[in-house]
């Protein structure tokens, strides 16, 4: 049931961290993978090389997901390369510009919403066009635990990640009858380049809030995405899978 052979997945922000783990997890299950990146071409090529070593096709595409013309070009390039667009879309691309609101510029607020929320909207819009013709498809949007709890210094990021949930439910309502499922995954604190830069004191404080007693790994998120992209979740749409070690209930 986890066989994704003959499926094509686009993973935005797929060059590192959670995005790279998702791309590789889907490839392990048999999917061909489009690795989207904004600036890190070498890392994207590394992920693609690993996908090819698994016997799957990989395609690397630079795209600013906040720019509609760039998104349109990406989907055109994918269709030219594979003869079709995505069967699976994972909207993972995101940025942070953390700051307290009284110091946050409107430009920085909008920049985070443009990438994290409008980017998911734009990529979904173009993926849905081909998914409608096929009358099937799975879109998985990456939200965050802070989209539900809020977080000091992240008003822009929390707004975007909360918006992802509304977008997910709206798309699920609109396209369920066309065979398109739309769900979200909301990670908690995940070990990453970002958390590696934190001091041990801050990391210990974060971990102390997590009932399971540790940060998650990118693979924990990738496993949830794989489930939502696969036939195992064929009766699941409009839902959010929380992967946070119990943080949201504490």
Element layout with pairings:
Elements: E1 8-11, H1 17-28, E2 32-37, H2 41-53, E3 58-62, H3 68-82, E4 88-91, H4 106-134, E5 137-142, H5 146-149, H6 155-175, E6 180-187, H7 193-196, H8 200-208, H9 218-229, E7 240-243
Parallel strand pairs: 1-2, 1-4, 2-3, 4-5, 5-6, 6-7
Helix pairs in contact: 1-2, 1-9, 3-4, 4-6
Describe the structure.
The protein has helices spanning 17-28, 41-53, 68-82, 106-134, 146-149, 155-175, 193-196, 200-208, 218-229; strands spanning 8-11, 32-37, 58-62, 88-91, 137-142, 180-187, 240-243. By secondary structure, it is of the alpha/beta class. A seven-stranded parallel beta sheet has the order 3-2-1-4-5-6-7, with helices on both faces. The longest helix is centred in the middle third of the chain and has 29 residues, at 106-134.
Question: Which terms would index this structure?
Answer:
single chain; 250 residues; alpha/beta; seven-stranded parallel beta sheet; 7 strands
